[in-house]
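#lab-general

N.A. 3:47 PM
ok so I finally got the sequence cleaned up, no stray characters, all 329 residues accounted for. can someone with queue access submit it? mine expired

B.Y. 3:52 PM
send it over

N.A. 3:53 PM
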Amino acid sequence: MYSQGLIGGQADPGPDDPVLLALFQARIDAEEKIEAGDWMPAAYRKTLIRQISQHAHSEIIGMQPEGNWLARAPTLRRKAALLAKVQDEGGHGLYLYAAAETLGIAREEMQEQLLTGAAKYSSIFNYPTLSWADIGAIGWLVDGAAIMNQIPLCRCSYGPYARAMIRVCKEESFHQRQGYEVMTRLAEGAPVQRAMAQDALNRWWTPAVMMFGPPDGASTHSDQSMIWKIKRFTNDDLRQRFVDATVPQAAYLSLTVPDPDCRWNEARGHYDIGPLDWDEFWRVVKGGGPMNRERLNARRAAHAEGAWVREAAAAYAAKHAKPQVVAAE
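B.Y. 4:20 PM
back already:
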């Protein structure tokens, strides 16, 4: 599985040893990267496994809302771009599963946690894509929020996660630009197209703003993750950055953010927003969203239908792992 390593030539005395904890935190404070073979507290490992696996699950489940439009994209160019994006999301999931595996958890165990509902994924993917404009809104808002959240992860204290995020963020930047370009074309189009773009913004705005997680006062893991430098900014800090960046983009499109309380606060130097429906957020997280059941059922079906591929790959690997017998001449 994994090795906690040796300290000073002595066997690892356990994850709660105060000397090791102090040395570990000193490395974090000095901005050193923690690598897979390094000693780390059990709670640090557990936190990373939870976060990275949930991130991977979100990428895999996140293929579904957009995959729903692959055959219905309006032009060949749009189909090709959307197909490339969906493929990227699958790749992101694989990078992240690989990063989590360095912490000693098997990919099969993570996938089982997803399929049984024991592990969560981003609540944003439990909403339906009702029109082509939703694909633009997802790219602009959802991937825009993801970039805001994930760029700081490139400086995460855990090396394998930080390195995986560098490529993920580059590709997410492409996805965000693609989505905004779709929304731009719709906003510049006929009245029915503008209405479609506004409707998509109306439905995706609040879920996107809540993507960063609950308010700081209600966030269970944020404080410790900040100390360990797994996270660099709080949920509310990231949410504010997203709002400040996105409201002017909506204004450029002459679209209206669906929040009557959203306005520039000169004293704060930020946009204010109205209260968010956190009851709705938790209802979706706990499985009560519009598409929770459909998303997991689709994932379970895909996993079952792919069993023969996994079995064939395992048989091929086992066959070629056996030593080759050379016939005597």
